[in-house]
Design brief:
Radius of gyration: 11 Å
Shape: globular
Number of strands: 3
Distance between the termini: 15 Å
Number of helices: 2
Helix content: 25-40%
Strand order of the largest sheet: 1-3-2
Structural class: alpha+beta
Length: 75
């Protein structure tokens, strides 16, 4: 699991399609809160057997949703 924190990119919806197409095993949970820098606005979960891989995948999605990672980056 990785938390999604509010940041400079307030439109979290725009990254959903990319994240789900990039990694269909993700589950993105949006709390419906206004995106304020540092505020927890959701979380990403992914399940499997390799904890390091799972955490990397969840973190990549969380940073992509907030605009901190760009398409094609590793997070």
């Amino acid at each position: 699991m990785a938390n999604v924190l509010g940041g400079p990119h307030p439109d979290l919806h725009s990254g959903y399609l990319h994240c789900m197409a990039h990694d269909p095993g993700l589950r993105i949970h949006n709390y419906g809160k206004k995106s304020v820098p540092g505020r927890k606005v959701g979380h990403v979960t992914v399940t499997g057997d390799d904890p390091e891989d799972l955490l990397a995948r969840a973190r990549h999605a969380a940073t992509f949703l907030t605009g901190e990672a760009e398409e094609g980056s590793d997070g």
